[in-house]
């Protein structure tokens, strides 16, 4: 069995969210060094604020400023910070109940070591030097032995409130396609196409994924298919691809389902080497490889007579 | 009372359960290659074929796979021809079982296949799980799953409800019990290790691993024909807490208690409890919420501290509880599943065998 392949896979996206009036006020407030909570009808102050009372589900909008000082309600010492976390040096995760609030905010506490942290300790906000209206505008908390700082009585109304945030996210994976797909990719590197035959219905699947989707049984018998095949159906693409890998492809062009000889499932690929308006069902095609490519660049006519409809109608 | 009183709900049972051996990595298998053997196993236990199954429901997460709609490829392992009635939850398979159970309660189907799987090995599961947090106030700080559990553990310690030694004992008992579980990933004597995020040590945390599980549900007489001693589901309920961690009392789990009450767990004592507590400190919270005393056998399988394939570990709790009833080791068992940080969402199922 050939080696199972693996490759890095990065999923990265700018997570773009709109803000309601309460979250907008809170995050805009952080930008202006003001911490806002929201008051419930029974008089509790929630920090960070939410739009609906977590107990009654009642809509709440009554913003109230709280102090930048507070008390640690629980903590955990993080000796090995991970990517994206607030501090790059060892720190404590803390829930902090700010003075004037009845609930606690999660953040990081900059402290020299776990012995310097305890539940009940007093802390204050350390503001980020550059603030954009995000929870990270609080750089972290720091120990604070002084007097409680009185809040300023801000109403929560700002001249230029934020309406949305962009929270970048990135996750790293090592993708492994498993045995069947590894074998398929290995074969492609030798410019061969292999499928797998179902032991039950005898159909040959390409690309193989290790299971017959019809019978739900494992497939193992490798079968080389192609390289030639038959166009079973196609469409004419009139919009130029936006992806950089496809910028050189002129429109219109044809994208087709191709039943490789010996396969019971059609692959899809671009058709070249023939004017787009002459491509037809039954056209016989073969792959065109470009130097260094990991899969055929496109398929072109072989010049053979067209395949009889009866030979591929099951594969449409 | 009138004569038009609705008839009671149908009796529905877990009639078969299968799981993979849980391992740190299964790079040689695609998801469908990992799932297919357990599907074949539960079908073989009952003699059913895919075409006999009334409803199929699965649980998994695209964020573990790093690919959109990853569950559709795993569905290849079911054999979806002729066409099947199918659904998916982006949750632990315990919630897929809940959906299947309600489907069977309506009478729309008599049998259901429920499966779930998680491959944690391709990504960094501690980071991956941060993406389920509040995207405005919490996720941008990237607090990982161990960090959040550690905050809960410290709150428990501050409240005098546990200490490091008691937590270590939970881990040690779980891994010792897991020696009788051929599927467990971490078993035997495991050093308690260093702090991962203090106060939690390696031994307080679940292993990271890949695995899958499947169960078959059947209604009424159908269940009796498929299984010598069906594990009747007497109730299932699931509840969620406020999503802001700072609003909650982390030392308690009112959602678990309420789910247990609505599932009928407190009507009579249970002899077994399979608790989905990935961290030792969470077992302390759950025991208190569920009022479990030492007469109850807790996590004889080793629980999530012995194997924690994310998205399957909750379904495995239901499967393990059911399997104990199948083999006569339990008469009335509680199974619990959790999802989200610090026991945010909780599902409780109560299972019973016929009187002996
Ligand atoms: Zn087949």
TrEMBL record, chain A:
Residues 64-127, 223-289 form the ChsH2 C-terminal OB-fold domain. Gene3D superfamilies: 6.10.30.10. InterPro entries: ChsH2_C, ChsH2_Znr, NA-bd_OB-fold, Thioester_dehydratase-like. Residues 187-217 form the ChsH2 rubredoxin-like zinc ribbon domain. It comes from the Bacteria. This is DNA-binding protein.
UniProtKB/TrEMBL annotation, chain B:
SUPFAM superfamilies: Thiolase-like (SSF53901). InterPro entries: Thiolase-like. It comes from the Bacteria. PANTHER family: ACETYL-COA C-ACETYLTRANSFERASE, NON-SPECIFIC LIPID-TRANSFER PROTEIN-LIKE 2. This is Lipid-transfer protein.
